[in-house]
Amino acid sequence: MYYEDKGAFTGEIAPGMVKELCSTVILGHSERRTYFCESDELVNKKTLAALAYGLRPIVCLGENSEQYELGETQSVIKAQIQQSLAGLNEQQAQQIVIAYEPIWAIGTGKAATAAGAGHVIHFIRHTYAEIYGESAAQAIRILYGGSVTSANIGEFMAHPDIDGGLIGGASVKNDFVEIVRISAEAIQS
Ligand SMILES: O=C(CO)COP(=O)(O)O
């Protein structure tokens, strides 16, 4: 989704057009950031445009493997939050969904541990609270994404800091049915 509502931007889809078909948009995915050079500033413009059109943005954050190895996860994530999620009003600050997707875990079969993802998600909520206050930080949902399957979704759902999963590869396999079943069970328990 692009952030302008009209104009000559060949290949892009305006938020008003997306709104006719969808209620939710994924923004700032690492594939968009890497292959399409999307910056935090652009992700921020898209996030604000989505909210203005009543679309719920799922804003993706995450460090790459080098940053992970160097112990830079928190500083990378903090900068992404400050820039990608800047300028939300009080109501908007309660509406977004964040997905923590470490790039080294996407499509690699090497998922983060629930404890590791939970630790970063706890940090994301804390950082978000510093900007938008504790009640907004408690209102938003923060998901984990990266090599989630039916074999590990239970552990992620059982972690108190993780509100759900953003499923990629497994969402187009039969395994997805099992992921949904396990998640629904975890939410009800
Ligand atoms: O990028 C993802 C979802 O947006 C995660 O992808 P995988 O579940 O295939 O690792």
From TrEMBL:
Keyword hit for Cytoplasm: yes
Principal subcellular localisation of the protein: cytoplasm
Compartment(s) of residence: Cytoplasm
Keyword set, alphabetical order: Cytoplasm, Gluconeogenesis, Glycolysis, Isomerase
Pathway: Carbohydrate biosynthesis; gluconeogenesis; Carbohydrate degradation; glycolysis; D-glyceraldehyde 3-phosphate from glycerone phosphate: step 1/1
Pfam families noted in UniProt: TIM
Substrates-to-products reaction catalysed: D-glyceraldehyde 3-phosphate = dihydroxyacetone phosphate
EC number: 5.3.1.1
BP terms from Gene Ontology: gluconeogenesis; glyceraldehyde-3-phosphate biosynthetic process; glycerol catabolic process; glycolytic process
Gene Ontology molecular function: triose-phosphate isomerase activity
A cellular-component GO term for this protein: cytosol
Quaternary organization: Homodimer.
NCBIfam families: tim
The family this protein is said to belong to: Belongs to the triosephosphate isomerase family.
Full protein name: Triosephosphate isomerase
Annotated source species: Dictyobacter kobayashii
